[in-house]
Design brief:
Blueprint: E1 20-25, H1 34-43, E2 47-52, H2 54-59, H3 62-69, H4 82-87, E3 96-102, H5 104-111, H6 118-128, E4 133-137, E5 139-140, H7 141-144, H8 147-158, E6 162-163, E7 167-169, E8 172-174, H9 178-189, E9 198-203, E10 208-209, E11 215-216, H10 223-234, E12 238-243, E13 255-258, H11 262-275, E14 278-283, E15 290-292, E16 310-312, H12 316-323, E17 328-335, H13 340-352, E18 358-363, E19 375-381, E20 387-394, H14 395-409
Parallel strand pairs: 1-2, 1-3, 3-4, 4-6, 9-12, 9-14, 12-13, 14-17, 17-18
Antiparallel strand pairs: 5-8, 7-8, 10-11, 15-16, 18-19, 19-20
Helix pairs in contact: 1-3, 1-9, 5-8, 9-10, 10-14
Bound molecules: flavin mononucleotide.
Flavin mononucleotide binds near residues 26, 59, 103 and 138.
Amino acid sequence: MEHTSKLITGSLSGVLQGHKIALCVTGSVAAVECVALARRLMRHGAEVYCVMSPMAQKIIHPYLLEWATGNPVVTELTGQIEHITLAGKGPGHVDLVLVAPATANTIGKIANGIDDTPVTTTVSSAIGARIPVVVVPAMHESMYEHPAVVANIEKLEHMGVAVLAPKLEEDKAKIPDVDTIVDRVFAALGPADLRNRHFVVTAGPTRGWIDRVRFMTNPSTGKMGIEIAREIISRGGSVTLVVGPTLLALPEEAEIRHVETSQEMMQAVLDAIAAYKTSAFISSAAVLDFEPAQKEDRKRPSGEAYSVQLVPTPKIIEEVRKKHKHLFIVGFKVESGVTDEELDARARAKVTEGICDLVVGNDERRKGAAFAADTNEVLIVGPKGFLRKVPLASKREIARVIVDEIVKRI
Ligand SMILES: Cc1cc2nc3c(=O)[nH]c(=O)nc-3n(C[C@H](O)[C@H](O)[C@H](O)COP(=O)(O)O)c2cc1C
């Protein structure tokens, strides 16, 4: 009978569906992140098997990882030759070995072919069997800067092992956040069909200032555009992400341009498109259609009613189209309480007018769709009557479908 912990499998996306991952945990305090990491990989569809060094088992108990993954945890090597079953050349081996967190000690051993823990032996076997290995160092900065550790990391990279850069803060080389690690796993297992391609993506809301302390905006969080950027990066592409105010974590590998107003977003987009050989512009930001005609350069006293005149803002996709006749442009259209037919017709107008190559239509009235939700339900429309309906799914899953449709056309 299947472990109930596995019920979450695939709840966020099917990106890792059918993939088996060995999550190797070593003796760093960052081992506490492993439960979240294992479960995020599972939510994207992976089957996760944990392997622990003896020191890791003093920091977190193997029961916790057995619960998290629903699979037995390798805590010692036995007559079952667990390292070969998991990461040898035989059938049924894992598709990827992820060492997270990786101590200075384990990095040193792997780099020098020393195998004296279940983790180091599993990794050695994986390297020999040409199974992709991703190592995620975590340690105090003093250890990370030791010349031997620096040299060992370089050795790993020369062996073809992917080493994920830690976050350097508070004198520590900290394990990156879970999403960043998962993105690297996607990249290692993904189709890599966007290598050498650059994309400009917008995300989030813009602000229209009324006076020095008040502005109008909309409820966009930027989630959809951020997931599109992550999807592109996971497939080997590079991204300039032009993002309005958001509290969400941004993909560490994207070039980020923070903006506030619609004009700033427009300028940043035009600059980014001009700076790179851009394969496509994906306009998923919720840019204000209207903004106050002027910003009062003071804080208007409270108490009295007053009117603010709103004027339309310039349309970024239209400006981009004027300057770049052949650029592949993806627009987003938000409607409110319309049927699929109306949504199709309204989204399609931008394709017919020659402004967009694809338009993603969504309806903010539908449950779990559009603003501030983790999910969305969209229609993707294109030329010659192309129409693809993507039923309610996580924004990551929707991002994957949108990027699939872009890949087919660029
Ligand atoms: C509470 C605790 C936290 C530790 N955190 C780290 C760490 O973040 N990074 C590191 O390289 N070593 C860390 N160490 C030291 C390692 O556990 C030690 O080098 C050990 O030999 C590593 O064994 P392993 O690589 O087989 O897990 C820590 C030790 C303890 C007791």
